[in-house]
Structures
1.
Amino acid sequence: MRSVSVLGATGSIGESAFDLLMRAGGPEAYRTVALTGAANVGRLAEMARALRAEIAVTALPEKLGALREALAGSGIETAAGPEAVAEAAARPADWTLSAIIGAAGLPPGLEVLRRGGTLALANKESLVAAGRLVMGESQRNGAVILPVDSEHSAIFQSLHGENLDSVEHVTITASGGAFRDWPLERLARATVAEASSHPNWAMGQRITIDSASMFNKALEVIEAHEFFGLSCDQIKVLVHPQSIVHAMVSHRDGGSIAHLGAPDMRHAIGYALHWPQRAALPVPALDLAALGSLTFTAPDEARWPALRLARQVIRAGGAAGAVLNAAKEQALDDFIAGRIGFMDMAPAVERALDACAREPGFASSPGDLATVLEWDAQARRLAACTSGAA
Ligand code: NDP
Ligand code: MG
């Protein structure tokens, strides 16, 4: 029986993975080693019981009592704290999904790679913050990384059987998020509630706001650079409001291979779960006649400065990815808390990038986790709003 672990089980991606595992037969089909979560220990305990997990871990030490209580009598081990999440990730499992949100996903993801495991990677932040380190650990230990971000899964699938040298460029699509059609002058007053609703995808709140600001696409451009080794100029973005074409690979011979599908993350998660096979998945079939038309436009960088910052980060290399990722997380925290406006996020990130670029060592890619975390902490300090309410 295959063994699996899900890091970030209680989130949006984690719930989709849980759905797939349960539909496939749950504990009769898979041996679940570890499930991890953070605040939502009630749901974590339900999932752990349903899958008969060996261990359930919350990242929050203050939640350990509640988790223990919820799992009393189940025989399921419990633990708490970031180190316990990393230790759970280090336990052997045939397939581990990294679906933690933010840079917190990096240390446990590295543990999976160090044990030579198969890492289904939704946590794009680890590649953005530490691409060189993550890919290096993977190669050194014979680990396998399977992209779960829908665009990167789409590229991965489109590249199957192809030679990367023949690729002219790839295109990833963006829905344009909540504010695609808003007049520019209205964006500065956009509220957290308005930014938290996505036209096509049901996702966690943070990535939904990142979709509205296009920081999600900025992270994905960097993710494509780190994972596939493509140059900045080889990664193009198109706004595609229907979210049906997820990515397209264009070859030097003039042919392009696109990946299409309904906007449902269970496709990309399920593809990674069953790879290298394909299995039937509970994903709506594509009905192009019902859709009628698919449209594409070039993104407007005045509306979405995040895309310009992504290219700046790829060209700078070194610690720029770690700085952009952390500064973005800080700016997002500040926006959600009402300390800054929607259009203040990109300038906060740019401020941190500019200041860090003057620091010694910025041009070198961080070679270990401690160095990534130092840049991360510095970037958060520099990006943080210090002037009270917006
Ligand atoms: P959610 O916010 O819905 O879930 C995040 C998960 O991480 C939850 O299980 C949460 O626990 C846990 N968590 C939160 N903080 C910490 C922490 N400090 N340490 C350990 N665990 C923590 O996020 P999503 O599911 O939307 O996204 C997860 C990842 O997948 C992100 O990297 C995102 O970019 C990526 N992704 C998401 C897509 C989507 O459709 N949602 C699409 C493509 C990529 P709890 O809820 O119990 O507090
Ligand atoms: Mg994506």
2.
Amino acid sequence: MNKKQLSLLIALGMTSQLVQATEAPIALAIHGGAGTIEKAKFTPEQEQAYRQTLKQALETGYQLLEEGKPSLDAVTAAIIVLENSPFFNAGKGAVYTFDGEHELDASIMDGQSRQAGAVAGVKRIENPITLARKVMTDSVHVMLSGEGAESFAKQQGVALVDNKLFDTPFRYDALLKAKEKLEKAKNHTKDYQAAHFALPMEFKMGTVGAVALDKLGNLAAGTSTGGMTAKRFGRVGDSPIIGAGTFADNRSCAVSATGHGEYFIRYSVASDICARVAYQGKSIEKAGNEVIHDVLAPIGGTGGVIIVDSKGNISMPFNTPGMYRASKSSTSPTYVAIFKEE
Ligand code: ASP
């Protein structure tokens, strides 16, 4: 733009629009799990409360992006809001294991450096996403599990909390119902597995996650979960596994997944989506739809993903009746949704 054009814009009072249009794009998307989430299952008040919490998580993260903070900060801040809410299966409100405890998994990835951190099966960490981030920044490892992860937390000055902090009556009830179904299979491994697969989706899902693009063009992704109701034997799902539940690379996209973890692990869902973008030149919308609807759905892999690319495009495909989700970018207004047709 030459001087003459600029002075014309100033005269027309159009400089603020100009700044907006030329400023680097930012974007944030969050999810609170996918599953049999249908309108009939909510009172209007409950639905409103879920939407409100999603909006609060979105705004908390988005404000940081507007201030020019890194996408890693926005992802962490949004996830902390969702971990602290009893509505979602992460942190407070996490599902119960077969033995009546909570074992939490989380991971985070930096799309600029491809550094990543994860924790699996932690019982005493209030906000597992912050510990995953510490694993990334303050250890030489990518994933720490169980008591070892908690020793690392202690060393890092992260407070250890009582596992009961994550208790909620609604999740306990879900455990009792799930165990009733599983008892019928008498715990013989194969029957047990069959019974586990037969559990309704709401016993399995509710993970939270966030993906973001910051003003410097850096992508980040994070995911946090309590896993699946009545899980046992130290079961770990896809959420803390880089490439399955979480992935970020500035050259393609950032993804956070939610769904039946065993499928997401076996099909490397998050990295498969980004690989289609990187190597096949596909849009995130096409790549996400292919993996969620054409790869996972036919084999019974239920769930969804949130995706953001380096231009600030957002896509949130899922193959379940609903997925708690919200998004905002420099070019798209606040969007909060739960059910399929929204
Ligand atoms: N993916 C999580 C897991 O398998 C569960 C979920 O997303 O709801 O542990």
3.
Amino acid sequence: MLGSGLAVWLALIFSMKTTADILILGGGVIGLAIALELKLQGASVAVLCRQFEEAASQAAAGMLAPQAEGIPPGAMRELCIRSRDLYPEWIQKLESISGQTTDYWACGIMAPAYCQADFPHAVTQWQTATAIHQQQPNLSDEVIGGWWFPEDAQVDSRKLARSLWLAVQELGVTIDSGVTVQEIVRQADRVTHLRTSDGDYQAAHYILATGSWSQDLLPIPVVPRKGQMMAVRVPDPTQLPLQTVLFGSESYIVPRQDGRIVIGATSENVGFLPGNTPAGMQQLMRRATRLVPAIANYTIEEFWYGFRPATPDEWPLLGTSAYENLTLATGHYRNGILLTPITGQIIANWVLRQEADAVLNAFHWSRFTA
Ligand code: FAD
Ligand code: GLY
């Protein structure tokens, strides 16, 4: 007869799912990009994801905009620019594995202004009214000039998420979809296992990539910042009114090549309050039609919303945690789509070979503990 303690212990061990050496919590673009990189480097990896559709990754406009977003010089800007520069090659690799296009478009981003003070961070690249109206017809007469960021780009974030979802599975990563991680069970400085809606899971290493919901699992300062969005469609997709993303002072307008135009976004501190509101929609429509009056006559196609994972300093939490077998990759706030390739690369190199990228220190969670 086994001692009852040992029996319980064995029962626990045998009832645990051990699907892979590395378990990623969260199936948004961040979790999936890390899974992709780990798998390409030969690791055994699985993803647990509550719901693909609720991810911020599905709501995002998909701007790759380190310059247009006005990120001040420093580690965050450096990380964003490195990631933007990885995009073309990384997208090619991703699309060839998944067979699914992402509509990456190196279209540049224009920041039109109603007055010179509209954009505090840019010191160069000012375009006069004549130049900007010539480059991009259909702007409002109120636009007095603006800034042009030719290296910024865009991707269709829903297609990106789908492409990643397919690619990792193509490579043999298991995605357990519909599974909620309820608790990260810790003992001293280690994670012992995960308690989930589908029983217990165990792995050698865990990566937290649960975006806005990260605080449900760990006491880290990541909170939701809601963004409402809408899309219109131009009547004739062969006659696109916009050839570049417009990053206005009040709103942004992201034309896709198929004639859809994505308009964003509100920024609201309302927790996880769901739904689109008349006030949110009114704000988007008023601001977008002020910038491009023709939008008033296009067909409304869709309204939606999502939750940006925000940290107090608006920088992500990347790298080690208080637990030696738990790595953090969360809190990407307004730039998670942009930061997807670099996050995958940096986190995979850290987890597999303890290769610490020079910028990692700046993104360590302990900056909030002082
Ligand atoms: P998410 O995409 O939110 O994914 C988290 C996943 O974790 C979800 O699938 C969720 O179901 C799962 N999960 C959560 N909790 C659990 C749990 N307990 N158990 C199991 N699974 C769990 N970024 C840009 O770079 N450019 C943009 O133009 C841009 N526009 C945006 C516009 C809006 C309106 C919003 C909301 C965001 C925008 N962003 C943009 C930001 C970007 O979308 C996010 O930073 C990025 O998607 C974060 O990705 P993530 O994978 O960390 O989180
Ligand atoms: N980066 C755009 C947004 O978060 O709305």
4.
Amino acid sequence: MYIEEAEEKGEGAEVKLRGWVYRERSSNKVAFVRLRDKTGTIQCVFKEDEVEEETFEKAADIRIESSVEIEGTIHEDERAPTGYEVHASNINVIHNAERFPITDDKSTSFLLDKRHLWIRSGKMRNMMKVRETIIDAARNFFKERGWIEVQPPLITASACEGGSTLFNLDYFGEDAYLSQSGQMYAEALTFSLEKVFAFAPSFRAEKSKTKRHVTEYWHLEPEAAWVDHEENMEIQEKLIEHICQKVVEERSEELEALGRDPEVIASVSAPFDRMTYTEAVEKLQEEGFGIEWGDDFGTPEERFLTEDRKEPLTVEKYPVEAKSFYMKSDPEKPEQVLCDDVIAPEGYGEMIGGSERETDNQVLIDRLKEEGADLDHYTWYLDLRKYGSVPHSGFGLGIERLIRWITDMDHIRDTIPFPRTPNRFQP
Ligand code: NSS
């Protein structure tokens, strides 16, 4: 039975638990074994004068991370961290572990080397549970509204976000790349299924060693026909609001354990504050930032705009030259595009990039040429504008960026079980 079930049975119930030894401490009179399973941890107490000698010795000698079965009775105990403990009568050692290499004083790089073991820690377990809830909530948001989940390919011939961050692949002697974004495929599927979303890994060969970049991340990419820039922003803000509510409903305990006050996340509600890129640049210039209209924002700019906020900020209508080729020109101001970024509060940085899509093939061709792209690779994409093209919009949400903000995690690598960063791709 799971620890959670045992606690539900309550005072005096006979229980048989199995799991791993999380902590262990013993004197010559009593052995404390803190047992861990998928539902939590619980203290199991073996008293020398109450159990058989052999049982006491096994419990007193057990090493951390050994796998065991423990029998006993459950008791409420105010001093126990979870309010319960087990008065143990028997222990069956399934596997007595070797000395566990992870101890309290280990360095970050050691923990990354031992990631396959570190994922058993409380911090990682809480993070993974929150992560699962966030992903579920995101999927359900779209499914409940009739959007269809689709699967774009991960091996591609062309760039979606420019050539500089592509991982090359030898595809039987031809050049291929790991996908940076499923967007172009999601657009193609939009003309088939209207409202679609993809949730898949994206790859970015970015050497930048920052706290918000990984080279492999999970990318949620919704795309919809008949949706314009305004509605696109509304969808993004409602999605974030929905995810925040679900996480607080289902994972408040884990959030608190990770050091995030659930109230802060509970108070996030759409619509968010919005500002145009032009307004943001004016604000930044007033504060002495050396930014010119046309420059993209870096970390310091995003931090300044959001560090004192409790809710995300949506910044819209960036200059054409700062953004990707597929974004629709603003008919009122062709030097800017109908796009937006949703920037997390407290300086956590951009979480979403989205836009209405350009439908004029000549504009697309001119922009691709400016980027120096090989047009042959985009023939299929340009085809989409020839056969029943309609206004459409979409966006990309980096799940790890969202998790980092929601869980108040210092580094993005701790939002995914096995992170990929410029200098690490194992374990
Ligand atoms: O480059 S994006 O801003 N936009 C796209 O890829 C569009 N093609 C998405 C779309 O419209 N379907 O990336 C989108 C998001 C960005 O806001 C981040 O949250 C995340 O993807 N992202 C990353 N997360 C973690 N690590 C890295 N390196 C990274 N790069 C982008």
